[in-house]
Design goal:
Radius of gyration: 27 Å
Number of helices: 3
Order of helices and strands: HEEHH
Number of domains: 2
Structural class: mainly alpha
Largest sheet: 2 strands, antiparallel
Strand content: 5-15%
Helix content: 55-70%
Strand order of the largest sheet: 1-2
């Protein structure tokens, strides 16, 4: 078997080809399943979406932390405006 990962994922298992009326397996089965799911780009898009869903909670947490830190810095700068002297920042 050349690609154990494809086999384990179910890509190369026996599948029926309605156009030919025959069963196929291996690379032919993988190609048919890939085509049924919209091609390689559709599979990549689904994987990308799954990746984004996986990291979304981390991004939300980072966004919340950044927001909280920004609020703290706003208060510090408001109470100590001289901290900005010498910095090239427009507020």
């Amino acid at each position: 078997m050349k690609n154990q990962a494809d086999f384990d994922a179910g890509w190369t298992g026996k599948t029926f080809n309605p156009k030919t009326g025959k069963w196929s397996s291996g690379g032919a089965a993988r190609n048919m399943q890939l085509a049924r799911q919209g091609g390689a780009q559709a599979i990549q898009a689904a994987a990308f979406a799954a990746g984004v869903e996986y990291v979304a909670p981390l991004l939300d947490q980072a966004r919340a932390q950044l927001h909280a830190t920004t609020k703290v810095l706003e208060v510090i700068i408001q109470k100590n405006p001289n901290l900005l002297h010498g910095l090239d920042i427009d507020l």
